Automatic annotation (TrEMBL):
<keyword id="KW-1015">Disulfide bond</keyword>
<dbReference type="GO" id="GO:0033889">
    <property type="term" value="F:N-sulfoglucosamine-3-sulfatase activity"/>
</dbReference>
<dbReference type="InterPro" id="IPR050738">
    <property type="entry name" value="Sulfatase"/>
</dbReference>
<dbReference type="InterPro" id="IPR000917">
    <property type="entry name" value="Sulfatase_N"/>
</dbReference>
<dbReference type="GO" id="GO:0004065">
    <property type="term" value="F:arylsulfatase activity"/>
</dbReference>
<feature type="domain" description="Sulfatase N-terminal">
    <location>
        <begin position="27"/>
        <end position="365"/>
    </location>
</feature>
<dbReference type="Pfam" id="PF00884">
    <property type="entry name" value="Sulfatase"/>
</dbReference>
<keyword id="KW-0479">Metal-binding</keyword>
<dbReference type="Pfam" id="PF14707">
    <property type="entry name" value="Sulfatase_C"/>
</dbReference>
<dbReference type="GO" id="GO:0005764">
    <property type="term" value="C:lysosome"/>
</dbReference>
<keyword id="KW-0378">Hydrolase</keyword>
<keyword id="KW-0325">Glycoprotein</keyword>
<protein>
    <recommendedName>
        <fullName>Arylsulfatase G</fullName>
        <ecNumber>3.1.6.1</ecNumber>
        <ecNumber>3.1.6.15</ecNumber>
    </recommendedName>
</protein>
<keyword id="KW-0458">Lysosome</keyword>
<dbReference type="InterPro" id="IPR017850">
    <property type="entry name" value="Alkaline_phosphatase_core_sf"/>
</dbReference>
<keyword id="KW-0106">Calcium</keyword>
<keyword id="KW-0732">Signal</keyword>
Length: 527
């Protein structure tokens, strides 16, 4: 069989010949990031899932990536990596920011939005941010011309109709008697921003999907009217709890299924808007920030076959926050009529880290100097000319075990090595103890997708692959140590909590609903 190098040489030649003549105009980009979505939440991936007809159609009309991974297994680090092409050990974002965080994604890190804006793009972010909201960490200061959304996860504040969560959370207090509830934010209402202005606090969760779709359509229309290419980063509230499905859920679908159906319809609506600009002008990339949040039981997503059986036998979950496949293997679809082959399934080892360098390359923009990137320009894979992605992919610790952000699991071809394992909280309340492995546990994912049976250390296969894994691991750590790395400020101050009216209980805004036809309102003092 051909070596990866043999495949890449003609591919690069093709890219060189192809690029100038076809990409005479910079393409539009829409990146849709679902939250806490499981690999099995996509019908095209997992036949048992019936609630995603629009996503399945997207898969049929584009390319589906089945070995695609989030850059971390939890919210803020995963998003920071998508927007910088760098792992948390480089960009400084190793764990989640709080509602009272003063910092965010370090300001010396260049974001995809900043670089695309410099390349002539109109840039918009809609939905969840979770990369800092205080001062210059707000999306409007990080390269986005327009922002509409919630500055962090939508369970990080109370609302009047709290939706479904486990344990259930109470609505925002109306009187000064405070109700403290474990795992619930009861003191401050959840804010909704348009640019720097809080337009609603608390957010009306039931209408959020519709509003995100409307704002996305308006942003796309405005950008299209201006004649500039656009980059829209749409970070959905789905499938993170609390879930607020259109009521009542259809029989047999349950709350999760009904919410999944709502997310699917929202993605379908965005595709429709993109198609209306002229098919082929817009690349749409759908993926997820990490795997399902297992401790939410029936309100958590579907893992498909990625059950992390070795960990499950020892307690705890093997999904979100872990470095098991269920934590970071996510659905991924790319749709770009006329450029990305329809109905294709790719087995290339890819990551959300690749979005940054790939979109910059397609826009004709250069990577920023003086730093190293973990992502690759995978446009040859998108175009179907190659099925070679990463030779090595690192999976950072994301809360379940080991130092957060540390690299103690990695992938080399079909082999997955763990130097540390641990389970996040499972539905039954158990967690899996942190265990260190020297020599590492190694699984052959081609034969053991469930990560059930590590290779026997004495086996020929283990002995054959261990030197390559050890070398790849040492090289990765060396590369990080030699890089220009940033440090995020994780300090907190109650003054950083978004609050549109400090006089009102829970920061409630009275009548701060927005007229969709009024542009450029004066920003309130919200930061």
């Amino acid at each position: 069989s051909l070596s990866p190098r043999a495949v890449l040489v003609p591919t690069l030649l093709l890219v060189a010949l192809w690029a100038p003549c076809v990409l005479s105009r910079q393409p539009n980009f829409i990146v849709i990031l679902a939250d806490d979505v499981g690999w099995g939440d996509l019908g095209a991936n997992w036949a048992e899932t019936k609630e995603t007809p629009h996503l399945d159609r997207l898969a049929a009309e584009g390319t589906r990536f089945v070995d695609f991974h989030s850059a971390a297994s939890t919210c803020s680090p995963s998003r920071a990596s998508l927007l910088t092409g760098r792992l948390g050990v480089r960009n400084g974002v190793t764990h989640n920011f709080a509602i009272s965080s003063l910092g965010g994604l370090p300001l010396n890190e260049s974001t995809l939005a900043e670089l695309l804006r410099e390349a002539g793009y109109s840039t918009g972010a809609i939905g969840k941010w979770h990369l800092g909201h205080h001062g210059h960490h707000h999306p409007n200061s990080r390269g986005f011309d327009y922002y509409f959304g919630i500055p962090y996860s939508h369970d990080m504040g109370c609302t009047d109709s709290p939706g479904y969560n486990l344990p259930p959370c109470p609505p925002c207090p109306r009187h000064s008697t405070r109700v403290a509830r474990k795992d619930c934010y009861t003191e401050v209402a959840l804010p909704l921003y348009e640019n720097l202005t809080i337009v609603q606090q608390p957010v009306e969760l039931g209408s959020l999907a519709r509003r995100y779709a409307e704002e996305a359509a308006r942003f796309i229309q405005r950008a299209s009217d201006s004649g500039r290419p656009f980059f829209l980063y749409l970070a959905l509230a789905h499938m993170h709890v609390p879930l607020t499905p259109p009521l009542p859920p259809a029989p047999g679908r349950g709350i999760y299924g009904a919410s999944l159906g709502e997310m699917d319809a929202l993605v379908g609506r965005i595709k429709e808007v993109a198609d209306s600009l002229g098919k082929g002008s817009t690349l749409l990339w759908f993926t997820g920030d990490n795997g399902p949040w297992a401790q939410k039981c029936e309100l958590a997503g579907r893992l498909g076959p990625f059950v992390g059986a070795w960990q499950r036998q020892r307690g705890g979950s093997s999904a979100k926050q872990t470095t098991w496949e269920g934590g970071h293997r996510v659905p991924a679809l790319v749709y770009w009529p006329g450029q990305v082959p329809a109905g294709r399934t790719s087995h290339a080892l890819l990551s959300t880290l690749d979005i940054f360098p790939t979109l910059l390359a397609l826009a004709g923009a250069a990577l920023p100097p003086n730093r190293r990137f973990d992502g690759l320009d995978v446009s040859p894979v998108l175009f179907g000319w190659s099925d070679v992605g990463h030779k090595v992919l690192l999976h950072p610790n994301s809360g379940a075990a080991g130092k957060v952000g540390g690299i103690e699991a990695l992938r080399l071809a079909q082999y997955k090595a763990f130097y540390t394992t641990g389970g996040a909280m499972a539905c039954d309340g158990s967690t899996g103890p942190e265990e260190r492995h020297q020599p590492p546990l190694i699984f052959n994912l081609d034969r053991d997708i469930q990560e059930q049976e590590p290779l026997d250390v004495a086996s020929r296969e283990y002995q054959a692959v261990l030197p390559a894994i050890s070398r790849a691991y040492a090289q990765a750590l060396q590369d990080i140590a030699a890089d220009n790395v940033s440090v995020a400020d994780y300090s907190q101050d109650p003054a950083a909590i978004p609050c549109c009216n400090v006089q009102h209980l829970g920061c409630r805004c009275l009548g701060a609903t927005r007229d969709p036809h009024v542009e450029n309102r004066t920003p309130g003092l919200c930061l």
